Amino acid sequence: MVLASQKDATLMITVQQHILQEQQRFPGATGEFSWLLSGITMATKLIQAKIRQAGLIDILGVQGNVNVQGEVQQKLDVYSNDVLIQYLSSRESIGVLASEENEKPLLFHQDSMEAKYAVVFDPLDGSSNIDVNVSVGTTFSILRRPDDVGFDDTKPWVLQPGAQQIAAGYVVYGSSTILVYSVGNGVHGFTLDPAIGAYVLSHPNMRMPEQGRYYSVNEAYLSRFPTSYAEYIQRLRSGELGYPYASRYIGSMVADFHRTLLKGGVFLYPPTTEQPDGKLRLLYEANPVAFLAEQAGGRAFDGHGNILDIVPESIHQRTPLVVGSQVEMLDFERTVMKTG
Ligand code: AHG
Ligand code: MN
Ligand code: MN
Question: Which of 79, 105, 188, 289 has a 20 to 30 Å separation from 226 between CA atoms?
Answer without folding.
Answer: 289
